[in-house]
Q: What sequence folds into this?
């Protein structure tokens, strides 16, 4: 075809048809989209079994626990709707409140002391013990994490008993007047359980923090020494500042271990003597399986979950902000 000026122009059919490059781009886009869809489908196929298990064994029990907390139920007979009465009982009955206070007291032993001692121990190992000695130190410190908590509770129950090795050692050095059944005394039972927690969690904190220390640039320490900084100045300005994320992880794990403690307390003291070491986990077990107050036990469990979240979420947020 020619235009008004007599010049040849492209025909409408040719102008409307896609070029060879555009067809290639379209084909590549189609293949790429199909590949994404196929990979997404394969990914969901792998994830689906885990999601099903998580829903059945985590989400469903959580929802049922919230539901049971609104009823008075003995676990067998008909349930009676009581609304928030179980929660009021949890927050007003001294016996139940004391279990929550005991859990927060254990935070001192399960979290603050292991993290602090772990920082110092990891710093000493990183600075002094290297090579085989450092590897042996890490192995020895991490051994309590390998031992089951039930076995740890049994072992320490024997050590802290009246004829146990601890009292024998105190008697041998002339301190026999202070010997006692450490787990059976009202004043020392909870601190004794805390000592077991320190023994179990110290190795975890030390190894995790020591791993973080290996990532710190050695040039930072050399620069600090050239400026005349001592060990404590290096520890405060470089080590702690560089390990904020690892410290946040340690605090998170140990605080959860303190608030949700059950194994060690159940095996070593069973919540005694006289409720001196009763923690929410023990009290939930007693209420649900011994006293058959499933609704009240569920309410206490929900309150415990809320307390754990209220404590852990700010710690995680601060740790992420410091790491960034």
A:
């Amino acid at each position: 075809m020619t235009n008004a000026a007599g010049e040849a122009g492209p025909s409408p059919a040719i102008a409307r048809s896609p070029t060879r490059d555009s067809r290639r781009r379209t084909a590549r886009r189609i293949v790429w989209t199909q590949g994404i869809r196929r990979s997404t489908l394969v990914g969901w196929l792998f994830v689906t079994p885990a999601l099903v298990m998580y829903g059945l064994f985590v989400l469903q029990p959580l929802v049922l626990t919230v539901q049971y907390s609104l009823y008075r139920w003995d676990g067998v007979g008909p349930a009676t709707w009581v609304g928030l009465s179980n929660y009021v009982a949890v927050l007003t009955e001294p016996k139940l409140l004391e279990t929550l206070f005991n859990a927060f007291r254990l935070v001192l032993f399960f979290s603050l002391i292991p993290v602090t001692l772990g920082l110092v121990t990891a710093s000493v190992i990183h600075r002094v013990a290297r090579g085989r000695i450092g590897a042996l130190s890490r192995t020895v410190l991490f051994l309590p994490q390998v031992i089951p908590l039930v076995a740890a509770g049994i072992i320490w129950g024997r050590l802290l008993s009246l004829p146990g090795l601890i009292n024998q050692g105190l008697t041998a050095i002339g301190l026999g007047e202070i010997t006692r059944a450490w787990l059976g005394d009202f004043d020392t039972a909870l601190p004794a359980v805390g000592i077991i927690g320190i023994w179990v969690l110290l190795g975890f904190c030390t190894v995790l923090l020591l791993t973080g220390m290996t990532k710190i640039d050695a040039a930072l320490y050399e620069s600090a020494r050239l400026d005349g900084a001592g060990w404590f100045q290096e520890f405060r300005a470089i080590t702690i500042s560089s390990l904020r994320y690892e410290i946040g992880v340690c605090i998170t794990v140990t605080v959860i271990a303190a608030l949700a403690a059950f194994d060690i307390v159940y095996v070593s003291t069973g919540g005694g003597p006289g409720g001196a070491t009763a923690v929410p986990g023990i009290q939930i077990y007693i209420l649900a399986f011994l006293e058959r107050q499933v609704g009240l036990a569920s309410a206490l469990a929900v309150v415990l979950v809320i307390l754990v979240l209220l404590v852990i979420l700010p710690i995680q947020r601060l740790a992420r902000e410091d790491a960034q």
